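Hey, I'm writing a tutorial for new members on how sequence and structure tokens pair up, and I'd like a real worked example in the thread rather than a made-up one. If someone can provide the structure for the chain below, I'll link this post from the tutorial.
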Amino acid sequence: MQQRVGIARALAIQPDILLMDEPFSALDEFTREKLHDDLLRIWSNTNKTVVFVTHNISESVFLSDRVCVLSPHPGRLSAIVDIGLPRPRTKAVRESDEFFHLVSKVRNSFEEVG
């Protein structure tokens, strides 16, 4: 519930860009997936730009149009992976071969930068 309130508070000021820094990292998987659905619905209704920081590769693929991979030190952009998954993002998308292929592609990009 606290995460939903935080998102609502951020949207109340009507920002052009919504910045989210690991907002779901402390949640269990089922709650996180529910909030993914909520966030995607909000995004669909508002069409806001969202910059979402996460260390969870599956989460980044499911929520994103693009995943930016940063190098550790110094933090530089080292790869951009386009995510062409269909919308709306459903459980079927999360379980698709294409989803797992993209998760693997992003993981490989991280491994390449160390």
